[in-house]
Amino acid sequence: xxxxxxxxxxxxxxxxxxxxxxxxxxxTLGETVYQFERDLAGYLGCKDAVGxxxxxxxxxxxxxxxxxxxxxxxxxxxxxxxxxxxAILHAGAKPVFVDVERxxxxxxxxxxxxxxxxxxxxxLPVHLYGHLCDMKKLSAVARKRGLALVEDCAHCLEGERxxxxxxQVSDAACFSFYATKNITSGEGGAVATNSKELADRVRVLxxxxxxxxAADRYTAKSPHWDQEELGFKSNMDNIQASLLLGQxxxxxxxxxxxxxxxxxxxxxxxxxxxxxxxxxxxGTKSARHLFTLWVDPKRRDEIVVTLREKxxxxxxxxxxxxxxxxxxxxxxxxxxxxxxxxxxxDRTLTLPLYPKLTPREITHVVRTVQEVVGNGSAPARAC
Length: 383
Ligand SMILES: *Cc1c(COP(=O)(O)O)cnc(C)c1O
Hints:
By secondary structure, the chain is α/β, with parallel strands linked by helices. It contains 14 helices and nine strands.
């Protein structure tokens, strides 16, 4: 049996919406994007949302919009996809890593204040695997020290903690609609915010710094537009938005299913020897984007290879950013710099998690993992 690492949820509803766009005139940034922006802001309960080409672009433009630039420092986590730190570099600033909590893998809010210097301009937490960071504490620190707060919500569209959801206590929340995210258009992203002003800044920055989009130029009486600054080419288009509209309406149902699958995994592995997994703190609603296991670090890579050979799609999220070659070379990081991120990075592996997983597939994943992990822990008997 082959179990794919991920299957998307694009179906008849999404294809119908796509058809409408294809039958119309505007393929690029236009009414369908604006509709998705209104729906996303409505779902999150925040004032505005802006569709962009990726979460990397969302992070980059949000950092610029809050005033991050050359010579600044941005505090973030080493345990994330490299896009998080790359966006800080794209904005001209330096990522300052702060270690994570061993239990959840999230940026440890208690360690953030010690890392603040005169150059610190912003804090960029990542809600790892869908579990929100301690946003109450982080927003209190940001307010007290006059820092911007930008959230990497690539894993966390649906989450809530202490009554706080993405974009509610930060300057901006950045989402990804990349191929394997909870809702997807292949590529895509968005910035959600309670600041009308920040949203308008991102709208200008996503399209070259121009004062009008193509659709605005089409409908306006005057054909003229101007450019006030040097922006980027990072807009979402109507094709992407059409694929997201239907999925967004169904996110809570998808989450329920992923929650059930995670509970099944947790129950199965709670009593398995040599296996652990991150904790979802009680009272929090995790977006349950990824289900990760912790195994013997000496055997992790071999276990991933064996599971793949046996047809179980699995991957690693993440080896810490500071130990990637580029970051080691540029900033001189060495192993041991962030022990908790490295502890998790050395033993983590990610199992399939998506609504289309069937009960048979889930049982097969559990049995195969138990068999593969169990085999290596008893080499004496195997001989
Ligand atoms: C996927 C991901 C990103 C980047 O998203 P793109 O839309 O591919 O740019 C950023 N941060 C995290 C944590 C991610 O998982």
